[in-house]
Design brief:
The protein is of the alpha+beta class. It has one domain (about 1-95). Helix content is about 50%, strand content about 15%. It has helices spanning about 30-40, 55-75, 75-95; strands spanning about 1-5, 10-15, 20, 45. A four-stranded mixed beta sheet has the order 3-2-1-4, with helices on one face. Strand 2 (about 10-15) and strand 3 (about 20) form a beta hairpin. It is elongated and about 60 Å long. The mean pLDDT is about 95.
């Protein structure tokens, strides 16, 4: 799923309904949705801002920052999931005794 897009030199993100919205309109709930997708889906994709132009300077800054955070999260995805699973296993071991 492509979570960040550049179309006609304008930046977009995919909202929880699957619709493209202007990156200028992104909010905390939208970011949470995107990062949940990153951790639960395998086929996350984004348009690379380095190869496509974004005309609006504010959109470009927001897009670049979110893009970089997504790249970092994707690179650490397996470590994040392992850490989460480890935390749950500790809780299971602590509170659920056979």
């Amino acid at each position: 799923m492509k979570v960040l897009k550049i179309i006609n030199s304008k930046a977009f993100f995919v909202d929880p309904s699957g619709n493209d919205q202007s990156i200028s309109d992104i909010g905390a709930d939208d970011l949470l949705h995107i990062f949940n997708l990153i951790l639960t889906e395998d086929n996350i994709d984004m348009d690379d801002f380095r190869s496509l132009q974004i005309n609006q300077p504010a959109e470009k800054i927001v897009y670049e920052k979110i893009y970089e955070k997504i790249e970092n999260t994707l690179a650490a995805k397996s470590d994040i999931i392992s850490s989460i699973n480890s935390e749950y296993q500790s809780a299971i071991d602590k509170y659920i005794k056979p």
